[in-house]
Design a protein that fits this description.
The protein is of the alpha/beta class. It has helices at residues 2-11, 28-32, 72-84, 104-112, and strands at 16-20, 39-41, 44-46, 49-50, 53-57, 93-97, 137-141, 148-153.
Length: 155
């Protein structure tokens, strides 16, 4: 979904970057057809570009489809480095592809981008039987350093 949205935005003339922050299941380089590694220029990392979208992923730094078994501080540092050391230039939108759930990476993103305007896009799933039908998706609202639900959207 992130790749499709990024490519559609770039096709409309927007300057778009993607951070594949799903270090356990990185898929963005494959979906974008990126085989090049990022370019290092002094202390900066220049991301490869495909379909007009600048993209960075942990998958660009590991061999093949090697698993990454990081937790907590290592994940936080990887996301922090993607957000601070990668030179995307002047972007209209930076999309982050996050792993499912509300784990370490989602917490890191909220901490590292405390004043950002966030739009959370999720894939649909069957709500648990205890939830009222059609009440599984929530709209985000801005809050310093955290994500909070402002209201529930019906279908």
């Amino acid at each position: 979904m992130t790749v499709n949205l990024a490519c559609a935005m770039a096709e409309q003339g927007l300057k778009v970057g993607v951070v594949d922050a799903d270090v356990h299941g990185f898929s963005v380089p494959g979906l974008m057809g990126i085989t090049d590694r990022p370019t290092r220029l002094d202390e900066m990392i220049l991301p490869p570009v495909a379909y007009g979208v600048k993209t960075i992923s942990i998958g660009m730094f590991v061999e093949g489809n090697q698993a990454v078994a990081w937790r907590g501080p290592m994940l936080h540092r990887a996301v922090e480095q993607f957000l601070t050391d990668v030179y995307f230039g002047d972007l209209d939108a930076l999309l982050l592809d996050l792993p499912p759930g509300t784990g370490d990476i989602a917490i890191s993103v909220a901490q590292l981008l405390p004043n950002s305007e966030l739009l959370v896009v999720t894939t649909p799933r069957q709500p648990p039987p205890t939830w009222p039908s059609g009440q599984a998706l929530s709209a985000p609202r801005r809050s310093r350093g955290s994500l909070a639900s402002s209201r529930t959207w019906g279908r």
